[in-house]
Amino acid sequence: MTNELGNNAPIGTVVVGYGYWGPNIVRNVIERPEFELVALCERDQSRIAEFEKRTPGAASIDSFEKALADPDVEAVAIATPPHTHYMLVRQALEAGKQVLVEKPLARTAGEAAELVALSEEVGKVLMPGHTFLYSPPVNKVKELIDEEVLGEIYFATSSRMNLGLYQRDGVVLDLAPHDLSILLYWLGEPLVEVTANGRSVFQDGVHETAFLTLRFASGAQANVQVSWLAPRKMRQMVIVGSRRMIQYEDTASDDAVRIYDRGLDFAEPPANFGEYRLSYRTGDMVAPQIAAAEPLGLELKDFASAIRQGTTPVSSPRLGLEVVFALEALERSLHAHGEPVKVRSADDVRSRDRLPLTVA
User: In order of start, what are the domains of the chain with their CATH numbers?
Assistant: First the structure.
């Protein structure tokens, strides 16, 4: 990497986009000592007015090219719709900027692979914004899995629903990256096959609800429901292992992680095939105390460390690439009415690789 390692000066940053997530990035860039907000880049005048109201005296610019030409700008944080990510990230990397881009990394696997290769070629950080990987409860679950508190992981379920903001890219691209990134992070193994079914209600080809099945290399499976059409917000995941079960609920103010000593055990070794006897285990429920912290602030801290110290971020380009591979496979399955689709691994990707995924 050609980063200025050891440079402790604040990182001059432009935030691109001031829609749903942009205001949160702007606030955290201002609050983090590692960064200095140079300007907001936004074309919508009503959003610029809102930005100026919230952050008096802060600069704004309506040209991405001008932002990239500014020598005070060392990094860009992109918070625009997924279909714009490839061109914006490519322009930023080619201009020699460090890049944080909101999930997903790109719209297609070919685009994502090209961006990762380009970042390595120019020696600049490319970090996908999978913010949930910096959530203290998510990291607590990761710790429990790594310490084998759950034992062998059998399966996971997830419900991510609300009366959501309608977007042209569809609910899978909007919500599924969260579950994919979390599960890949927790399990630490490749996703090998997916299936997806969904429903388009208001516009053909834009699914508002989808049901996803994910199969990992070890045989562990996950069932994920994502939807914009739900009466209340739900962000809940359950991990079932051979020793323990965990419930993680992002919307819970207390007890976001609950560990259940429950399950089924063999009562005794079976003498023959017909003598399997199972007993129910109903032990205690424990809710560990977890210190509160804003995940986005921790994500930006990790971005700064990658720039200044050359560390590999938790939300790494490799993980971002694997998420995009999974998303592309899910969308292919979705439009093929639930046909299983194999998912390629980041290990199979060569520089500038644009080969399509293979349908099972």
Answer: 131-360 (3.30.360.10)
Please state, as a whole number, how many other Cβ atoms lie within 10 Å of the Cβ of residue 174.
23
Residues 6+ apart with CB under 8 A from 156: 183, 186, 220, 221, 222, 223, 237, 238, 239, 240
Residue closest to 297 by CA, chosen among 92, 22, 29: 29
Output the pTM of the full model: 0.88
Contact 62, 41 (CB under 8 A): yes
CA 204 to chain centroid: 26
Cα separation values, 334 from 193, 194, 209, 314, 339, Å: 13, 10, 11, 29, 8
**C-alpha triplet 274, 280, 284: angle, nearest 5°:** 160
pLDDT in tens, 346-359: 766 544 444 333 22
From the list 142, 143, 144, 157, the residue with the least C-alpha distance to 261 is 144
Report CA 102 to chain centroid distance, whole Å: 8
DSSP class of residue 275?
G
Backbone angles phi and psi of 248, in degrees to 5: -115, 125
Across-strand partners of 334? none
Q: How far apart are CA 297 and CA 122, in angstroms?
A: 26
In order of 5, 34, 38, 294, the CA distances from 8 in angstroms are 9, 8, 17, 23
Q: Which tens digits make up the pLDDT trace of 165-215?
A: 777 778 898 899 999 999 999 999 999 999 999 887 887 777 889 999 999
Q: What angle do CA 329, 334, 338 make, to 5 degrees?
A: 95
26 close to 15: Cβ distance less than 8 angstroms: yes
- CA separation for the pair 62, 48 (Å, rounded): 9
Q: Are residues 153 and 144 in contact, defined by beta-carbon separation less than 8 angstroms?
A: no
Q: Residue 265 has what pLDDT?
A: 63
